[in-house]
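User: quick one - fold this with S-adenosylmethionine bound?
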Amino acid sequence: MSGILEVSGDWLALREPEDAAARSLDLALIAAELLPDGPIVVHDLGSGTGSMMRWLAPVLGPQTWFLHDWSADLTEQAINHVRPADRYNAGISVFGRTGNLADLSPNDLAGASLVTASALLDVLTSEEIHTIVGACVAARAPVLLSLSVTGGVQLNPRDERDTAFEDAFNAHQVRRANGRRQLGRYAAPIASGLFADAGWQVRQSTTLWRLDHRRPGLLSEWFAGWVDAAVEQEPQLRDEADRYRQGRLAQIELGELSARIEHVDLLAWPSP
Ligand SMILES: C[S@@+](CC[C@H](N)C(=O)[O-])C[C@H]1O[C@@H](n2cnc3c(N)ncnc32)[C@H](O)[C@@H]1O
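Assistant: Sure. Structure tokens for the protein plus S-adenosylmethionine:
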């Protein structure tokens, strides 16, 4: 399928514990209260290897999940992964749906009690977000959209070069690549505005990755990807990047670097 940017299962596994710690449980509990009694059907969009399902399933009652992703490989990993139990400690049912979310129709969400997504919105285009929000509004089920980046990054200790890399990374996030322009940090406000325009209620919560000596592997991987993307966007940063990277990696090895990476979670639901 053209335009697909492959996400690695290893990267999703590395970030899963931090994603679980960061997502807003408060919004998840509000979403749970909006659900009907009895068995529910959840559609997770851009489900990857199923991290959102493993995090949310234990909060909900009897449930069936439909995992939507354009990667058949990641969807298969999600289905074959050890399954979480529901809040009554009973098993859950899981089905995969391989396809491009750009083509999501209200029929694909027929019967949904809840629609979820995690770490998805910022990699979508404007057209895809309009399509997805349109399908959700037609389905009239609450929508929990976790972990969209806002572009906010704070490294501690500070370095005067941080801002140049942050700006270049944020520009990289919204570049046109493989025929698509992702929305990056603009994605969550746009989705929120579209739900509000449809007359839906929207709540949001700032959610943070807090990376430090407790997760050195994730901190180094995230930092390497952040700097590489910044250099790809602004090649004149390349020479400085080598020195910057070396200094920061030495701090990670010594357990002296921490990073706060800001995200936002959204919950939207139709007004009664
Ligand atoms: C950053 S990963 C997040 C995966 C998972 N939700 C998680 O939290 O671990 C984004 C996922 O969205 C999928 N994806 C991105 N754009 C998509 C599209 N247009 N159609 C279908 N899947 C898409 C990718 O294949 C990937 O699995």
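One thing worth noting: The chain has nine helices and nine strands.
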